Amino acid sequence: MKIYFLKLSDFLNEIKNNRINADTENMDFKSQKRMLQHFAWRFLVTNVCKKFYNIENPEIIKINKKPFLKNNEIYFGITHSQEYVMAIFDTHPCAIDLEKIRPINLEKMSKRYNKNFETLNDFFTFWTQYESSIKLGEKSDNVISDYFENEYIYSINTKNNIEKVPIPINYF
Asked: Counting beta carbons within 10 angstroms of the beta carbon of residue 57, is it exposed (0 to 12), middle (13 to 18) or buried (19 or more)?
């Protein structure tokens, strides 16, 4: 299991706008930010597949709105939050969620989810675990959470046994 990420501002400085526009030409996005996130995760997944998994022409398809590699060479999951786009890769189905830790009303969230969130970290750990289980499509006992860049929490859900925390996160 490996995780790779891009920082959007660094990535956009390296990529030409005409390439982004060409690769997203016939797609409809709610905002410019969503278009850039979409382009970045596709770039990340495609290039990690080529560079680290020797998949020459990775073709991404969607099944029930979830992206997969057409020939199931490897499983991956994607997430984005604020300035980052992340992808997890494994030999088993996997999912990841990333959230920036930010102020929220903990009392309101505790009532909504019938839990006692004492800290923002409590809530965002719960939330990323919840979101990653939705992305995986099922509840799993193989879930871990950790911090990223001191301001983010991520959670991984997988059908594979998770051996260690933290899992190395690689800048792409």
From this structure: exposed
Burial zone of 139 (CB within 10 Å; 0-12 exposed, 13-18 middle, 19+ buried): exposed
DSSP assigned state of 170: E
Structure tokens at 41: 């995760």
Q: What is the pLDDT of residue 165?
A: 58
Q: What is the pLDDT of residue 106?
A: 97
C-alpha triplet 148, 35, 156: angle, nearest 5°: 30
Burial label for 130, CB within 10 Å (0-12, 13-18, 19+), is: middle
Q: Point out the residues of the chain with pLDDT beneath 50.
A: 18, 21-22
**What does pTM read for this prediction?**
0.88
